[in-house]
Every structure is written in C-alpha cells, then in structure tokens.
Write a structure and sequence with these properties.
410 residues, 11 helices, alpha/beta, single chain
Length: 410
C-alpha cells in the first residue's frame, strides 16, 4: 500500500521532469535554428550589400560621364536627381551591411561633426518628411571613443523612437556638446549626444522605465521595447550612460553620455579629400597608366570610361593574382585602383600591402562598400563605394603627388 500511495506522485514528478526536459530541448533547438537563420541572413546581407554597391557604382560613374556630355537642362536635372538617389541608396546599403555583420568591438576616435554630417541624409530618410530635422555640434566638441557601428545603430534607434512618438510630424533636434562632469560616473571627460523631439512626452513614472528591457509605451504589434535598452547598454559598455528627460505635452530628450577622446582637438580635415583639396595636382595632360583591379565587368567598364575622361590610360585585372602578374611585367603603371572584395584568397587590403612591400613608391587606392576600420584606413587610402567621381579623381591625384615626394622618387 505504501508503494502504491507513492506511485501517482512519482509518476507526476517523472512526467513533470520529462516535460521540463522536452521544453529545454525545444528551446535549445529553437535557439539553434534562430542562430542558423541569423547567420544565413548575415551572409545574404553581405552578398547583397556588395553586389548592390557595385550596381550603384555603375550608375554613379555613368552619371558622371553623362554630366560631362549633357547640355540640355532637363537632361542635366534628371542626371543630378539620379546622383542624389545613388547617394541615398549607398547610405541604406551601408546600413544593411552593418546590420547583417557581426564583428568584434573596435572602438575608434570619432569626430561627431563629421559623423553627423555623414548621417544627416540617412537620418532624414528615417524620420520621414513630416519631421523637420536640425543638427547642431557645439564648437570644440571632443571626439568620442566608441564603436562606430554601435553608435550609428544607437542613433538610428533614437530616431525611430522619435518618429514613432510623432506620427503626425514635428520637430527633431540632434545636438552634440561637451558634457559637465557627472558624479555618478567614473572620472573622465564625456560628450553629450542628445536627440530631442517635441512630441507628446511622457510622465515621470514612464520616463523612469524607458531603459528597461522590453518596456514600451506602444501597444501595436511589433513594438518590442528593446531599442532604448540597447542604447543604454551600448553607452554603459562604452564607459558612459544614457539619460532621458520628458515632459507631458512638450516632448522628450534622450542623451547619450559618451567617453571623450581629449588628447587632441577635433580634426575635420582627416582622410582622402576631406578638405576638398588635393595635395598637389598632377599635370592634366600626363595622367599616365592606371591599373584597375575589379571583378565586375559592368563596374570596370563604366569606371574605365570615367577615368579615360580624366586622362588615364586604364589596364584592368579581375583579381589580385592577375594584378600582381601585370605589375611584375610592366613598369609604366603609375597608380593602382582596387576593389576590396574580390574572388580568390587575396582581397584588396592584402593586395595593397603586397604592393606597398614590393613597390613602395607605387600609389594604390582602395574602394570598398564597408567600413574597414581605423587601422586600415590610417595606413591606406580608402574610399567608400559608391564614391563621388570628383572625390575618386582628386584622391588618385593626391596619392600620385604624395608618392612623387618620397625620397628617391622625385
């Protein structure tokens, strides 16, 4: 009888244990499937970004050729509109690439004046036409030492949050300034990057909860409530924090307090063509021979036409190995222009390093649809794809002039 009385309870415990194990197994299988889908989406996203940037490059360079040939005002206006569309498409493709890429955290010293200028077009697309956007960077703002992709995604989250708070339109301000010392944070200078809207605002009670995971004031399907919590997590991981101030009927301001890089003053003229001037224009009638390394026939065709219009004689290689063979056989090549993503084991960055080692006085310019990071960009001339033709030509000219000044190469 004693064993019989324990039978049902024992069976219940066994059943509960079996159900718990089944639940854990289903959870693990679901997590594995979600991870597999995320990896697949990331791979598709990177392939999409590369191929679509190639298409944008064809359109961009083709537009430049048309601009030099067009005399009809209507045709010129149409080409200019297409140029603007390419610029917007490039920013959206860049965002897609960043969202689909899982990379290790790499902090960089970011000049917010340049960062926000580059973000402005994308920001306007995100908030929509009903919202008027204003940017302001106070004089002398320090650089911030953060991961650039995470900073951009955090700002996008704040812009989306503001847009959802103002479905009928309104005003939106993005402001950057040096912050005062905060007693609740570790010692160190910080920069305040604030997004302010004039939407309906919220009560103090709600404002204290906005950074909590999964908290949302919206009831519609798809409102996950993870955006602001991720923003604060990014700020804390960077060595700062995030704060919110809101008043019902007046609006909301979300501030990211980010660690400052105060070793030097902001330098807004850093990078290829940043100041709009080349370092020393070469003779326009003596541009010489250029080696174009590009696997796409369409991109190579229109880029060659563009460069021919600017006085270059263009030879083409389809990958890094072919480029090295051409360089070994020819000593009259004056500059190399190479894509970064190419078929084969050697990409454009590795090619550039081999060129720097074997032919140290031969200038090489890379063009890429992704951010290659400060280490690469600091040692090599790198342009973002699609690149404005004027910037491409001025960068080639600058690199040629710079290498001519190297010892023994005058």
């Amino acid at each position: 009888m004693k064993n019989a009385s324990k039978g049902p309870r024992s069976q219940a415990r066994n059943q509960a244990s079996s159900e718990a194990q089944s639940s854990l197994r289903r959870g693990a299988e679901q997590a594995l499937e979600n991870n597999r889908r995320a990896l697949m989406l990331g791979s598709v996203g990177r392939t999409f970004a590369h191929d679509f940037n190639n298409l944008l490059g064809v359109i961009s360079n083709g537009n430049h050729v048309l601009q030099r040939l067009c005399t009809d005002n209507a045709a010129v206006a149409a080409v200019e509109a297409s140029v603007r569309a390419v610029t917007r498409g490039a920013r959206l493709t860049e965002l897609w690439h960043r969202l689909s890429t899982d990379r290790e955290r790499t902090d960089e010293a970011i000049d917010l004046r340049i960062f926000l200028q580059e973000m402005e077009e994308l920001a306007k697309i995100i908030v929509g036409r009903r919202i008027q956007l204003s940017l302001h960077v106070a004089p002398g703002v320090w650089r911030v030492g953060v991961e650039p992709n995470q900073l951009e995604l955090s700002l996008i989250a704040l812009l989306l949050n503001a847009r959802q708070a103002m479905p009928d339109g309104g005003q939106l301000w993005i402001d950057a300034r040096n912050a005062e010392a905060a007693s609740d944070l570790p010692a160190g200078d910080r920069v305040a990057l604030t997004v302010t809207d004039d939407g309906p605002g919220m009560s103090h009670h709600l404002a204290t909860q906005v950074f909590e995971p999964y908290f949302t004031t919206r009831s519609e399907q798809g409102a996950s409530g993870i955006g602001l919590s991720q923003v604060k997590a990014f700020c804390i991981a960077s060595g700062g924090t995030a704060r919110v101030a809101s008043t019902e009927g007046l609006g909301t301001a979300v501030t990211m307090l980010l660690p400052a890089e105060t070793a030097g003053a902001p330098d807004t003229a850093n990078g290829p063509g940043a100041d709009g001037q080349s370092s020393g224009p070469a003779d326009p009638n003596d541009k010489g021979r250029l080696l174009l390394v590009e696997d796409s026939d369409d991109v190579a065709g229109v880029t060659s036409a563009l460069l021919h219009n600017h006085g270059y004689r263009v030879s083409r290689a389809r990958d890094a190995d072919e480029a090295l063979r051409i360089l070994e056989r020819n000593d009259d090549i004056g500059v190399v222009l190479s894509d970064v993503a190419m078929p084969g084991e050697t990409d454009g960055v590795a090619l550039a390093r081999q060129v720097k080692t074997r032919w140290p006085k031969l200038p090489i310019v890379l063009i890429s649809g992704q951010n290659l990071g400060a280490a690469v960009a600091g040692s090599l001339a790198v342009l973002r794809k699609p690149c404005a033709p004027e910037l491409l030509v001025s960068t080639l000219r600058r690199e040629i002039a710079r290498t001519r000044l190297l010892p023994g190469n005058a």
